[in-house]
Amino acid sequence: MRFVDIIEKKRDGLELTTEEIRYFIKEYTEDRIPDYQVSALLMAIYFQGLNEREIADLTKAMVESGDQIDLSAIHGIKVDKHSTGGVGDTTTLVLGPLVAALDVPIAKMSGRGLGHTGGTIDKLESIAGFHVELTNEEFIRLVNDNKLAVVGQSGNLTPADKKLYALRDVTATVNSIPLIASSIMSKKIAAGADCIVLDVKTGAGAFMKSIEDARKLAEAMVTIGKNVGRNTIAVISDMSQPLGFAIGNALEVQEAIDTLNGDGPEDLTELCLTLGSQMVFLANKADSIEEARELLKDAIQSGKALEKLKAFIASQGGDPSVVDQPEKLPKAKYQIELLAKEAGWIESMVADEIGTAAMHLGAGRETKESIIDLSVGIVLIKKIGDQVKQGEPILVIHANSEDVEDVKELLYHTIKISPQPVAAPKLIHEIIN
Ligand code: URA
Ligand code: CA
């Protein structure tokens, strides 16, 4: 097989065979095809697309390019959740304990990664003593005993995706629905879950700016799931502004505790109930989505979800007393309000721009080597649609330096105030299954 022929076929809009796709992924993973040829193929895919069969073959080939996690020793149906690019998205911290409280096993493998705030692991590490260095045996035992464990990414999962994603990043080919769908699904499938619930974000600041694109991506991923035998459901949710109020590591842990206590932000609570009820239903712990939702609400009201969080923290070496005494979490030295320069209604606060401001405070990593400050971040007071008076605080900056002028400038730039009333954005757009 000659790789140039594969490029030519896709350039001309023809369908690639299973063998050609497998050859591409295997040879590229093993460094036998140069980046310049793969760049050309990626650009051809960007313009010509891939059909359903090609996408499934590409996903399977990427899954098979590295290790696959075997979760078969865990009892019950394993459900995983994935969100595509949220900002201040505290859902994982809430959903783990909430869904596990209904005996759905959650075996979460998580990375640190780059971004506006740390990953789930960084956030959890703001709890004193909490660690994610578990052997495979410990991880499986904790999930069987407690229904919930989080482990740091180990092994060599989907190396093909790592190489391709890096190349896409520098060849302007990230934004292709077949490539995004196969990239995300390959990682979820290699991580071993039986069922997958996807939270596809849409709106200014999300990957998929329009609902139409978000729907296409969601449909592509749900179809991959069907084609590889992993039941998959996608929820399309709003990310035109950050979810909840908190953006930052310890701040989001605090927000997750509040939410599991029944005192969380309305949007975060609603999205967690929506995603959680899909997870509980897929795991066969309820006969309908409505029943699943009621069970989740009961778990919050009865305190079962909060108890699960405490047990989870303790089982991984953390101090569970933070749940009742969140003042034990790392706290930034300065709390600085951002005041409205004019009166009106909040019209926009673009999620990823608010996230960038949080990153400037030190909440996220700009490079792999950056050290993150778990205490800093932003807590919103107002959200889109809320009325503000001139001089009223819109949000609070949590910083370890008094000089936050550059951060304020970023925030004033993205927060627009309208003289006319503005409607709050719709949170849940669609559910695709
Ligand atoms: N996230 C991924 O993991 N892959 C993509 O291609 C895009 C977003
Ligand atoms: Ca949040």
TrEMBL record:
Q: Which NCBIfam families match?
A: PRK05820.1, PRK06078.1, Y_phosphoryl
The keyword Metal-binding is assigned to this record: yes
Its function? Catalyzes phosphorolysis of the pyrimidine nucleosides uridine, thymidine and 2'-deoxyuridine with the formation of the corresponding pyrimidine base and ribose-1-phosphate.
Keyword Glycosyltransferase attributed: yes
Task: Tell me the subunit arrangement.
Answer: Homodimer.
Coiled coil region boundaries: 282-309
- Hey, which family's this protein in? Belongs to the thymidine/pyrimidine-nucleoside phosphorylase family.
Q: What is its EC number?
A: 2.4.2.2
Cofactor(s) needed for function: K(+)
Gene3D superfamilies with a match to the protein in the record: Nucleoside phosphorylase/phosphoribosyltransferase catalytic domain, Pyrimidine nucleoside phosphorylase-like, C-terminal domain, Transferase, Pyrimidine Nucleoside Phosphorylase, Chain C
Q: Name one GO biological process term.
A: pyrimidine nucleobase metabolic process
Entry keywords, A to Z: Coiled coil, Glycosyltransferase, Metal-binding, Potassium, Transferase
Organism taxonomic ancestry:
Bacteria, Bacillati, Bacillota, Bacilli, Bacillales
Q: Which organism is it from?
A: Perspicuibacillus lycopersici
Pyrimidine nucleoside phosphorylase C-terminal domain: residues covered: 345-418
Reaction(s) catalysed (UniProt annotation): thymidine + phosphate = 2-deoxy-alpha-D-ribose 1-phosphate + thymine; 2'-deoxyuridine + phosphate = 2-deoxy-alpha-D-ribose 1-phosphate + uracil; uridine + phosphate = alpha-D-ribose 1-phosphate + uracil
One GO CC term of this entry? cytosol
Protein name per Swiss-Prot or TrEMBL: Pyrimidine-nucleoside phosphorylase
Question: What top-tier enzyme class does this entry carry?
Answer: transferase
